[in-house]
Amino acid sequence: MKIATYNVNGVNGRLDVLLRWLEEASPDVVCLQELKAPDPKFPVKAIEAAGYGAIWHGQKSWNGVAILARDREPTLTRKGLPGDPDDTHSRYIEAAIDGMVIGCLYLPNGNPYPGPKFEYKLAWFDRLTAYAAELLELDVPVILAGDYNVMPTELDVYKPERWVNDALFRIEVKDAYHRLLEQGWTDALRQLHPGDRVYTFWDYFRNAFARDAGLRIDHFLLSPHVTKRLSAAGVDRHVRGWEHTSDHAPAWIELSDGPAEEDQ
């Protein structure tokens, strides 16, 4: 089973790129971020024509998340992260697929630091951590995938010294990520590539992709049941080189065959 996460940076403006990649990679499940489209504008017909069922949580011009499943309909289990009823950002959606709970998230960027956007990021991280603990208590297979907007270690950023006071690399944000891992989650890509420089994002400016001046900010966190099945992980970095593409590349994991329930 192949599961991917992809910040598309505008699902309608880059629909041709998304459909091309879906046809090429044939993932079973896809978590999408930065739809930048309200719910009525989500391109559901094109997605369905490509062979995918979909659920989505959109927002005009900003944010937005979706989960796609090949040849099936994802079962919606949650829209929005609990903990703040006044939070109107479309940043979390969750589905049950093949005996697993899959959460798709788009964590706030947080820049500029310091300031209210950074404080909102830390508060959102706290809410995610609290909810993630509840998911682990269910003792079912869970995947939390998406754009976390954090580089967890110096290995995840091309020039760490330049990012010390950026909201994606501040010590408070890295600490929050590691507190999440300490609950019992596994960072899938780092688990299988512990010493490799693997990036998922390259800025549009300063020829970043050609220079491989990248960041690893798109992550899969796996509960123990899913970690047992992890067999491969990688990034389709060539997609970042396509015309009119997102500044992110799709990241993916593969799970060994067999229903997730067998590991319970």
UniProtKB/TrEMBL annotation:
Superkingdom of the source species: Bacteria
Keyword Hydrolase included in the entry's annotation: yes
Record-level GO BP terms: DNA repair
Residues annotated to bind Mg(2+): 7, 34, 147, 149, 247-248
Cofactor: record remark: Probably binds two magnesium or manganese ions per subunit.
All residue ranges annotated as the Endonuclease/exonuclease/phosphatase domain in the record: 4-248
Site (Important for catalytic activity) residue list: 218
Family: Belongs to the DNA repair enzymes AP/ExoA family.
Protein name: Exodeoxyribonuclease III Xth
Species in which this protein is naturally found: Sinorhizobium meliloti CCNWSX0020
Organismal lineage: Bacteria, Pseudomonadati, Pseudomonadota, Alphaproteobacteria, Hyphomicrobiales
